[in-house]
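Q: What structure does this chain adopt?
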Amino acid sequence: MELRDIQRVYLVGIGGIGMSGLARYFQHLGCIVCGYDKTVTDLTNDLHNEGIQICFEDNADCIPISFQEPSADTLIIYTPAIPKDSAVLNYFKNKGFELYKRSQVLGLISKSSFTIAVAGTHGKTTTSTMVAHLLKASGNDCSAFLGGISSNYQTNVLYGKNNVMVVEADEYDRSFLTLFPDVAIITSMDADHLDIYGDHQHLTESFKLFASQIKSGGTLVHKKGLPLDTGYTYALEDATADAHAANICIEGGDFYFDFINAAISIPGIKMGIAGTHNIENAVAAIEAVLRLDIPADSIKNALGSFRGVKRRFEYIVKTPGHIYIDDYAHHPEELRACISSVKRLYPDKKLTAIFQPHLYTRTRDFADGFAEVLSMVDELILLDIYPARELPIEGVTSGMLLNKMSLVNKRILSKQEALDAIKNEKPELLLTVGAGDIDTLVHPLKEIMQHG
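A:
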């Protein structure tokens, strides 16, 4: 398939963060773009407002006439998250269309570019967005496909005037193995997606295979301690790594650090976003963009103006009386990083958290880890498990998780009950965490925390 021949693009699962980025990209190229998704969201509303037609009924009758027969100028893209019995997906299969996964198309788009790919079981969205911002803000420029909505650019896809591309390399369904980057960052390799990989060892092998696909003469940058034999390592406050952050401190609610590697030192970097884990992401991003000869002053200024990613340690309310932070964390180690940063920033405030577990398999596989890390908060409201693509598993419930926790102040509530509880109790420090549809609570919680 030659991308330059494509004039029409249909995306099955268009509302996903990665799929919506491709939809915007092909519309930017002048293609006719439409698609199907099961749920109306803020993101699908944005796509609709940008002129992209979306059907929310899993029915082949919704497919426009111009997409009903295979053609050399028509591209059908699907996400592995779409159920195999989807009527729309099976229409295209039965009609003889050649279907492409989102990751395959990303591989084709980035094939002829100087590609910086960011992988990791967590940290990849913020780090890839940070890399893209460092390149944009320094005047070097880039195109980018991001796994979240950049707060600086209010989109998940950026268009550049040069041949540099930043992509988020997703390990789910081994998607990142379609990429052959010039520079790769691996932020973490914790056990996750065991419904796909079976065990941690197979996940680790896939990351090693991804690392082996870096182009000849390319660079691997990875967190120190990962089971990888090559590449440049980075760490927090560990001078034995090839690059590290030193003199980390908080002043006036802002995080500061020094970046140090064998060739350069950048002192007194002020972060535009909070969180010790984000300093670690910044060290990785700096080490990557230094390969493109970005000046130290440009890096320092760009990090100060970086506003992060929607739902990644995002301040929703920040007043003298009330703090409300929202985060996408849905794995025990992500939760640990997020909760630790909140407690470091606000050690004297009582922390109330609302958490929505994501997937029955993940809840089952990491139940002990979730129980341990969620017990770090002062008060917990637990929502029911968000199933996403999965069917229920007997015995795997939010109640099972609650029973494992050492925390005293814990309860299971519906979303409406959670809103009512926050309205009555008006906590001084609130955190919402999860990757399901907990984001639908963000706006009403903002109203409650601001106005009561």
